[in-house]
Design a protein that fits this description.
This protein is an all-alpha fold and 242 residues long. It is built from eight helices and two strands. The protein has a two-stranded antiparallel ribbon. The termini are far apart.
């Protein structure tokens, strides 16, 4: 029985992604964001349960990638597609230009499965991080009613940047701690401290405005911070010591 528990949790991730897709197609972006986050929780616990129960099989690995592609690839891409399509007016067909992000998410997952360097860190932006960025940003824009043409064009171009970040060889840190020392985890601690400060600033901003809509943007802000810290750390490691 226990050997089926991780696959059951992974299936819940897939179902969460399917529900997120439905909400994305209906233009209910905050609900789509919610189910992407629920899928991320299931994605975290399926791997943990497999390690705790000492059960692992190729079927589970393949199922995990399929579920992740629905939840973190297709769902956020459809959120972006429907948002741009509905807001761009006569040029709405430009929204089709964002669809490659779903394909590049699948390529990213295939690369992750085969790349042995990505056990304790990442090469390129992980699909959950990319999904959280877009789902959070679109939810916030929809709640705020922000859909200026220049912003929509920028989002289309931004989806192409996401395609590159998903499959590029940029080294980015993971949040896996092997110990709690500052020396081995300074980049992770800097990110976490900054993330906590960003959460606090966002809460204060929402309180000052008297609106909770800023909470929707928090995911996008944290992912931008994550990429910024990761790129800075990668450049620092490549810089020769004097």
């Amino acid at each position: 029985m226990k050997k089926h528990i991780p696959n059951l949790i992974t299936s819940c991730n897939l179902l969460s992604g399917a529900v997120a897709v439905l909400f994305a197609c209906r233009g209910e972006y905050p609900m789509a964001l919610l189910f992407i986050l629920i899928g991320a929780v299931f994605d975290f616990f399926d791997g943990m349960s497999a390690r705790v129960l000492h059960v692992s099989n190729p079927r589970g690995k393949e199922l995990d990638s399929l579920a992740d592609d629905i939840t973190f690839g297709l769902a956020p891409t459809l959120m972006l597609f429907t948002f741009v399509y509905q807001c761009l007016g006569e040029l709405h067909n430009l929204a089709f230009c964002v669809l490659p992000m779903a394909a590049f998410s699948a390529l990213r997952l295939a690369k992750f499965n085969l790349d042995e360097r990505q056990t304790d860190s990442f090469r390129g932006l992980a699909t959950p991080a990319n999904a959280l960025f877009w789902a959070s940003l679109i939810s916030w824009l929809s709640v705020e009613g922000l859909a200026m043409p220049w912003l929509l064009y920028t989002m289309v171009v931004g989806s192409w940047l996401s395609c590159y970040l998903l499959v590029c060889d940029l080294p980015l840190f993971s949040l896996k701690f092997h110990d709690l020392s500052w020396q081995h985890n300074c980049v992770r601690y800097v990110f976490l401290i900054g993330a906590v400060l960003l959460v606090l600033l966002t809460v204060v901003w929402c309180a000052v405005r008297g609106s909770r809509s800023g909470i929707y943007a928090l995911g996008a802000i944290i992912i931008v911070w994550y990429v910024g810290v990761g790129v800075t750390a990668a450049l620092a490691e490549q810089r020769p010591l004097r």
